[in-house]
Amino acid sequence: MAVFWKPMAAGLLLTVSLTLLGWGVEVQGGTQAKKVVSGEATVYLGQDRDIWRPIIHTASNLSDISSIKSTFQLRTFDPEGAIFYGDTKNGDDWFVLGLKDGLPLMQFSIGGNHVSAEGGPQLNDGKWHKLEVSNQNNFVILDVDGSKGLVVGMGGPSKQTEEVQTGELRLALGGILIDKEKMMIQFDPKMDGCVREGSWLNLRAPWEVEVEELWPCYQDIIPGSFFPGTGFAVLNTSVFPVEDGKGVNIEFRGNFTLMHGTILSIRAPGQEIMLTLMADNNTQEVTLTFGSEKISMKSDDLKKLVIIFEEEMLQVLEVRAKFQGLQIKSVRNSGFLTTWRNGRIAFGGLLGEGEDNVGSQFLTGCLEMIQVMGRDLDLDLTVKHPSIVSHSCPA
Ligand SMILES: *[C@@H]1O[C@H](CO)[C@@H](O)[C@H](O)[C@H]1NC(C)=O
Ligand SMILES: *[C@@H]1O[C@H](CO)[C@@H](O)[C@H](O)[C@H]1NC(C)=O
Ligand SMILES: *[C@@H]1O[C@H](CO)[C@@H](O)[C@H](O)[C@H]1NC(C)=O
Ligand SMILES: *[C@@H]1O[C@H](CO)[C@@H](O)[C@H](O)[C@H]1NC(C)=O
């Protein structure tokens, strides 16, 4: 076990860095032109692709590795995703650092022994955190912002004392290079986050980019779901079961003056659309349409909008910056429960007629919070267009 350990740890410790605009050097590799970036590059991890595939990766001979430490910075509001991967022996021995519930999660397998550990500080607060992964004797150590984050030890005597120092070490960001079934703790790898200023062991070789073009990391971000106007997120309303006698609340927060397009639509297949909520940045109004009823609201100092469905009534609550109080508008509601049980709910677009989730009038803007029945909605759990960023908006 010790055998592989040193180089492995070394793998962990790599650093990557590159400035936002520094991508895109073309290198001729055989017949194919491959894009490469420096290990110090700023890399957005949440880009659209096959979700387990890394954004960038590199490889090096184990014999070239002399450091056991990798450092990098991470910034995210996303509680879950894959950050950093390393392996040797073509993936027989591997290491993955990710987040789950906002906490660091390390999983690795060395010589067939699986280890996983979760803990340390909450990292998904949208601030840059400095992470350092190192290996000392039989321990893997994750330091966060200069303090001990997570220490994982591997027990038992080493099976071999002679280290095999040949072969290849592979590193990847934003995904893994082995079968996802090998993860002991399952997680959703897609990470709406950024890594920068990486220093990966002592490796200086450029990293290969797996995607056509790297998406940017914004200078400043705020929590929320960002809709660029090219698609929507759809759910079956049945995922939010309604208890008898109880209603349904849907709450939105954000700067409504900056939004344009459909915020919400609800429809049962084969029926007329039940409800739409649209923002218009020209008229500076948000309009709720429910059957033949229309409620228009000035968007200028609107901070929060709550739609409450009750058995016989639909209410809209407006919370504004200038008023302490609420404005409540009500319309009669019948048949809502039937649609709710069979229908679909879309955020950021207008549902089409059929079952095939064709949408239109997509939203441009940031929904800083979406809550259904009092709970934050994670758009990663919906069927959503890849252009939608689920946990952060450019500020
Ligand atoms: C590893 O070493 C071999 C032989 O020295 C060399 O051909 C190969 O290109 C090296 N690989 C990497 C990734 O540096
Ligand atoms: C909604 O449910 C249907 C059948 O129950 C399923 O085929 C479909 O994929 C679901 N749609 C979404 C958006 O989850
Ligand atoms: C919304 O954005 C506009 C333009 O940036 C800004 O002037 C306004 O103060 C914002 N409104 C709120 C409620 O934050
Ligand atoms: C309204 O939003 C659209 C889509 O983002 C944008 O193209 C347009 O410039 C905006 N118009 C105004 C008046 O802000």
UniProtKB/TrEMBL annotation:
The protein's location, in the record's own words, is: Secreted
- The signal peptide annotation in the UniProt record is 1-24
InterPro entries named in the record: ConA-like_dom_sf, GAS-SHBG-PROS, Laminin_G
Question: One Pfam family from the UniProt entry?
Answer: Laminin_G_1
Name residues in a coiled coil.
none
Q: Which GO terms describe its molecular function?
A: steroid binding
A cellular component term, taken from the record's GO annotations: extracellular region
Q: Which UniProt keywords apply?
A: Disulfide bond, Glycoprotein, Lipid-binding, Secreted, Signal, Steroid-binding
Please give the Gene3D superfamilies that the UniProt record associates with this protein.
2.60.120.200
Q: Is the keyword Signal assigned to this protein?
A: yes
Please give the SMART domains that the UniProt record associates with this protein.
LamG
Q: What does this protein do?
A: Functions as an androgen transport protein, but may also be involved in receptor mediated processes. Each dimer binds one molecule of steroid. Specific for 5-alpha-dihydrotestosterone, testosterone, and 17-beta-estradiol. Regulates the plasma metabolic clearance rate of steroid hormones by controlling their plasma concentration.
Q: How does it assemble?
A: Homodimer.
Q: What is this protein called?
A: Sex hormone-binding globulin
Q: Which organism is it from?
A: Champsocephalus gunnari (Mackerel icefish)
